[in-house]
Specification:
By secondary structure, this protein is of the alpha+beta class. About 35% of the residues lie in helices and about 25% in strands. The protein is built from five helices and seven strands. The chain has a five-stranded mixed sheet. The protein has a two-stranded antiparallel ribbon with strand order 1-3. Helix 1 crosses helix 3. It is globular.
Length: about 150
């Protein structure tokens, strides 16, 4: 259940297609802490959020991942510069089979899986408009630092 943050970066970049991996900008403000979280579900959730952000903005802008903590919660924010999500889409994002993608380009289950993980761990997934255009997908999970 322990995820060391420097492994997170390497695992995400290795699992992404090269074109998206090269666009991924990771900012880590956790001062090298390790967290007690289930590694594989967390990596899979971040991959879903990053891939969605990359698909939302096909113009080549960076997809950003901000990692921060307040000591009790880990905040993982994936930001894109796509067209953004309307208020209704933000409200329904994470519901099973809800998608804003064209037919045959997604089933609406990716965000459902991320939201389910967040809820199982006592956290949340929310979306909000990003200043200057785009969307911020914010995954907040309660944490305890991993034992040394």
């Amino acid at each position: 259940r322990v995820l060391l943050r420097h492994y997170l970066t390497a695992e995400l970049k290795a699992a992404l297609p090269p074109a998206l991996s090269s666009r991924l900008l990771i900012r880590d403000a956790t001062d090298g802490l390790a967290w007690q979280l289930p590694r594989q579900p967390l990596v899979q959730s971040l991959l879903i959020l990053i891939q969605n952000a990359g698909e939302a903005d096909a113009s080549g802008h960076a997809v950003e991942l901000d990692i921060a903590t307040d000591g009790t919660s880990l905040n993982l924010t994936v930001l894109d510069r796509g067209p953004g999500m309307c208020t209704s889409a933000q409200k329904h994002a994470g519901e099973p089979f809800f998608t804003t993608k064209p037919p045959r380009h997604g089933m609406g289950l990716g965000l459902f899986l991320v939201r389910t993980l967040a809820l199982q761990l006592g956290g949340e997934l929310r979306h909000q408009a990003r200043s200057g255009g785009g969307t911020s997908a914010i995954l907040t999970l309660p944490i305890q630092p991993a034992a040394a």
